[in-house]
Design brief:
It is a single chain. By secondary structure, this protein is an alpha+beta fold. The protein contains 9 helices and 17 strands. It has a 6-stranded antiparallel sheet with strand order 13-14-12-17-16-15. The longest helix has 23 residues. It is globular, with a radius of gyration of 21 Å. It binds ligand DP6.
Length: 350
């Protein structure tokens, strides 16, 4: 038996991925960009093993057996084995172990270390970790973001630390739709993320289904993908390179708002934000106005939980403001802030 264990963190997008041009290969209608969180914070931990004793491929997620029938798992496993076979035929990775591994079945065991209440994108960390572990096990080299992308689009960005872009690519086979590190985790160490957990309820419509309807019905989404995202990608990349927080923060909030505007423009409309999310947005703008410059930026994915980007020197002030507006209550031993659970997270440092 051969086994490998790896961890991969969650990433938080500042230019959002929303919409596929190819559902099977998971090819997006626009490029996107995110920061990968620290390994010690929200991450998935996966062990993959191959053995001649295993009678079929199996998987356990947070201790419960899951079916591997889902085409996303099948695509990932098929692609990993195809690449490993290619490597073997090319004469690399000679040795009984790789040959054996290719004819044996795999067992996968994955757990998330983040509080279930966080309700944060676990598929990005999960698929990223699964693909990375399998690639190590089958000794695959080269870019594997193309494989992670076929598990869950946003997963390809969690393979790298720091700020990572996912270039939409142009080819029909998706070989140029890959993730690329823009800057490492050491580039902007002052940048922090606060996660305000507004709700741990399951979202009424998942991101894959939601973006499918948006692509079919939202003209705003089409316009955004063609005309706005390409410009924003360039502008935010320059802002990150220059550590220009004002520009970075403004684009981050505008892009989050445009994702949710596109959801409302979808027919029938999709609404992920709730009243607390809107109160947080309002509070952030009030606070920034009061300070005379942008001190903090919000961004929301396909749910009501807020991710706040801010500089380290402003964490205490922003936390005080959040505490003041949402007075703390105790719940299940965790500190909640009137329904909000606050997590303070650095960008990934390896
Ligand atoms: C709102 O990567 O979960 O978080 O590719 O269908 O698995 P699939 O979708 P997923 O979508 C994430 C959407 C988002 C924005 C983002 O992370 O860029």
């Amino acid at each position: 038996m051969d086994a490998v264990t790896c961890t991969a963190p969650v990433n938080i997008a500042v230019i959002k991925y929303w919409g596929k041009r190819d559902e099977a290969l998971i090819l997006p209608i626009n490029s996107s960009l995110s920061a990968t969180l620290s390994q010690e914070q929200l991450c998935a931990k996966t062990t993959v093993a191959v053995s001649g004793q295993f009678t079929r491929d199996r998987m356990w997620l947070n201790g419960k057996e899951e079916s591997l029938e889902n085409p996303r798992y099948q695509n990932v496993l098929r692609e990993i084995r195809r690449r490993a076979r290619k490597r073997k035929i090319a004469g690399e990775g000679k040795g009984t172990s790789l040959s054996d591994a290719l004819s044996w079945h795999v067992h996968i065991c994955s757990v998330n270390n983040f509080p279930t209440a966080a309700g944060l994108a676990s598929s990005a960390a999960g698929f990223s970790c699964l693909v990375y572990s399998l690639a190590k096990l089958f000794r695959i080299e080269g870019d594997i973001s193309e494989i992670a992308r076929q598990g869950s689009g946003s997963a390809c960005r969690s393979l790298y630390g720091g700020f990572v872009s996912w270039n939409m690519g142009e080819k029909d086979d998706g070989t140029d739709s890959v993730a690329e590190q823009l800057v490492t985790e050491n580039h902007w160490p002052e940048l922090q993320i606060l996660i305000l957990v507004v709700s741990d309820q399951k979202k009424h419509i998942g991101s894959s289904a939601g973006m499918g309807v948006s692509v079919k019905t939202s003209e705003l989404l089409r316009y955004r993908a063609e005309h706005i995202v390409p410009r924003r990608m360039k502008e935010i990349e320059t802002a990150i390179q220059n550590k220009d927080f004002q520009t970075f923060a403004k684009i981050t909030m505008q892009d989050s708002n445009q994702l949710h505007a596109s959801c409302l423009d979808t027919y029938p409309p999709i609404i992920y934000l709730n009243d607390t999310s809107k109160q947080i947005m309002h509070l952030v703008h009030k606070y920034n106005d009061f300070c005379g410059e942008i001190k903090v930026a919000y961004t929301f994915d396909a749910g009501p939980n807020a991710c706040l980007y801010l500089l380290e020197e402003d964490v205490a002030g922003v936390l005080a403001m959040v505490n003041h507006c949402f007075p703390p209550i105790e719940q299940n031993g965790d500190q909640y802030i009137r329904g909000l659970q606050v997590e303070e997270l650095p960008i990934q440092k390896d």
